[in-house]
Write a structure and sequence with these properties.
Organism: Entotheonella factor
Order of helices and strands: EEEHHHHH
Strand order of the largest sheet: 1-2-3
Protein name: DUF433 domain-containing protein
Helix content: 55-70%
Largest sheet: 3 strands, antiparallel
Number of strands: 3
Shape: elongated
Number of helices: 5
Distance between the termini: 49 Å
Structural class: mainly alpha
Strand content: 5-15%
Radius of gyration: 18 Å
InterPro entries: DUF433, Homeodomain-like_sf, WH-like_DNA-bd_sf
């Protein structure tokens, strides 16, 4: 069962923040803001299914819980780096390198 946190935002059973009536997590909007420096209007252009109120609510929720979001983003970056390092020398990459298709 989900718990309503604020207008337009709810938490799922795992504690992830979602934008109401969408299939969009708050962290997705936050990453657009952080990675691209997107304004709410630019985010709306990229995610036309979100209302401006939903976008502002997501950003507001992020700023109210910034430390937790920033820690989760860092955790995801580290997990990605570990996976990338694991496959860096995979047999497929070695064959592609031998064929001259990868540096």
């Amino acid at each position: 069962m989900t718990k309503t946190i604020t207008a337009h935002i709810h938490l799922d059973d795992f504690g992830r923040a979602w934008i109401d009536d969408t299939n969009t997590k708050v962290i997705e909007v936050v990453l657009d803001k952080l990675a691209n420096g997107s304004s709410p209007e630019e985010i709306h252009f990229q995610h036309a299914h979100l209302s401006m109120a939903q976008i502002h609510a997501a950003l507001s929720y992020y700023y109210d819980h910034q430390a937790e979001f920033d820690a989760e983003i860092e955790r995801q970056v580290q997990a990605y780096d570990q996976l990338r390092d694991k496959v860096k020398d995979s047999p497929l990459r070695q064959r592609l390198r031998a064929m001259g298709k990868l540096p």
